[in-house]
Input
Amino acid sequence: MPVGLVLEGGGIRGAYTAGVLDVLARENFPFSTVYGISAGACNALSFLSGQIGRNREIFAQYIQDKRYVSFGNLVRGGSLFGFNFIFGELFHELLPFDYDAFFSNPIGYQAGATDLETGKIVYFSKEELGENMEAVRASSAQPFLAHPIRFAGKKLLDGGPGEAIPLPRALEDGNRKNVIVLTRDAAFHRSEKPEFPRPMIRARYWQYPAFRDTLIYRGQHYNALRAQCFGEEKQGNAVVICPSKPITLSGFCRDPAQLMDLYSMGVQDAAAKLGELREFMA
Output
């Protein structure tokens, strides 16, 4: 029976996911496909290339580098995150990504981004990521903090608004069992008020009414997805790994020490689930 690995996004909370994935990588679990949104899609790259610790080093070494994340990037390049640096010098020279290992890994990959025209999630496989990882860039391009990325005939932004937790796609693909990695603790409930004021959303995305609605009702959709995840777990169809305590860091945290604490929590939480995971995957 195929088992999917489902990774929520979450910006800097991705340091938690990086810790979880390093534990899972050492176990060589036979997942069918890894499904990632935003930071989850980014972390999945190193997981599938077998580069244990690479994501940790990105957070440890480069989170304070203004080329990685800064408002200067937003002014100069249209995105808070410096995608040209992340998928350029960092990707090829500083912490080289092993493309050969990634593409030869039999485990599949799906990265999700939101289509501005439809307001819906769209997914891209290994073979569809683009020469410069445009699909992964799009998956991480946050509304208001990045210009839309034109790719595959679409205008795309962060996958979070469309489907913050890619469990529906994993189920659609036939994965009746899934391991789900969340970046919020089990008690978390997202406010169902829009993250940005409605007039601001309407003014910024006036050309894209479907995407506006997706942003406005993002909280309701997110909470429903979380309920689905825990419902699958109760039925024995999923194992959910989530932070053992609330993550209170700012979304713009650039303190390596705090992010390493988050990474360590991911390692510890995943290690505590290993017995359950081995039985589940058997």
Remarks:
- The radius of gyration is 17 Å.
- The chain has a mean pLDDT of 95.
